[in-house]
Amino acid sequence: MSLEKKHVLVTGGAGFVGSNIVEKLLNSDVSVTVLDNLSTGKFENIEEFISNSNFKFIKGDICDFDTCLIALEGIDFVCHQAALGSVPRSIEFPHKTHEVNATGFLNMLHASKEKGIKRFVYASSSSVYGDSSKSPKIEGEEGNLLSPYAVTKQLNEKYASVYSQLHGIETIGLRYFNIFGPKQDPNGVYAAVIPKFISRLRSGEDVIINGDGLQTRDFTYVKNAVNANYLSLFTENKEATGKVYNVACNDSFTLNYVVESLKEGLLKKGIQSKSNVIFGPERQGDIKHSLANINAIKNYLGYKPLYSFQEGVNEYIGSFL
Ligand SMILES: NC(=O)c1ccc[n+]([C@@H]2O[C@H](COP(=O)([O-])OP(=O)(O)OC[C@H]3O[C@@H](n4cnc5c(N)ncnc54)[C@H](O)[C@@H]3O)[C@@H](O)[C@H]2O)c1
Questions:
Q1: Angle, in degrees to the nearest 10, between helices 309-320 and 255-268
Q2: How many beta carbons lie within 10 A of that of residue 216, not counting itself?
């Protein structure tokens, strides 16, 4: 497929994953419009693209249906990343999470159908596996949900499936497993562990691990997630659409191991961390182990992890030192 004349709308494009997707698309000569209300994203994540004639930024809210319609003018494909992330935030603010992640999602999906958009790729989450103790996690074998956030992501998948059947819009849902990398916000109570740990290790503050640190996650470098989005947007395999896929590495590590790896990575760059590791209470809504089976995305989309956890950590640390 020639990508040169293609135009993709990236919602949430000023956020962590979204801005990394934008970079890849612009480097591939695809035109990009970003729709983002800058609630958790930052203008500085997209500042470098502003001078690119293939790039346009709309500051707006997906909770407003008319804004969604306007943003879709001239668009071929949608890459929907906008959402309020974080399980704890959703437990504290379920209404706001629902408004953005469920109603905002439906706004974008319905507006896309109204505008005749061909393909709608969207960010789902490993949280849809809920309390399932099966390992590795396989699409189709989900457990009971553990948070309002997970409810909204499952709802996204249901709506996408229904719209795909009713209206023929090609949807692809990507269940991200703990993505990390450049442009991820290390600050605030809802920050993800890897950027937060690195920030604390660098400043010498205590690193706080919720629980015993033996919980495991399939940590996935952001360039793997970007690649999954790219393959989903442009695949010509019709069989691949109307489905959801795990996006991960099929390799998991304990939080204790992650802290040690980050310390080592920083040491290689000449930074010896003086931080202590402190164990706090377990977090509500968390699962103990999370490892993904990635056979479906390999088979349908030709995905493979471009970066292992360690390679991702090395590049990430190198990116800001
Ligand atoms: N980072 C992860 O590990 C992870 C894991 C699973 C799923 N996800 C999903 O991936 C997507 C991207 O996550 P991220 O980590 O980049 O988060 P992020 O907070 O960095 O990005 C989300 C972006 O959406 C924007 N946004 C929020 N509400 C909006 C609204 N009402 N209108 C327009 N824009 C709005 C924010 O300003 C932000 O730029 C989200 O859908 C998230 O749920 C992320």
A1: 50
A2: 19
Kindly report the number of other CB atoms within 10 A of residue 47's CB atom.
Answer: 12
pLDDT at position 286 is 79
Are the C-beta atoms of 26 and 55 separated by less than 8 Å? Answer: yes
Predicted pLDDT of residue 287: 83
Give me ligand 1 centre to Cα 36, in Å. Answer: 10
pLDDT tens digit sequence for 186-222: 998 889 999 999 999 999 999 999 999 999 999 999 9
CB 246 within 8 A of CB 217: no
Domain-located, residue 196: no
Q: What is the pTM of this model?
A: 0.97
3-class SS of residue 10: strand
Q: Total domain count for the chain?
A: 1
Mutation pick for ligand 1 pocket among 59, 63, 81 (CB with most ligand atoms within 8 Å): 81
Compute the distance between CA of residue 115 and CA of residue 4 in angstroms, rounded to an integer.
Answer: 21
Domain assignment of residue 142, yes or no = yes
pLDDT at 284 over 90: no
Percent of the chain with pLDDT over 70: 99
Q: 257 catalytic, yes or no? A: no
Write the CATH number for 166.
Answer: 3.40.50.720
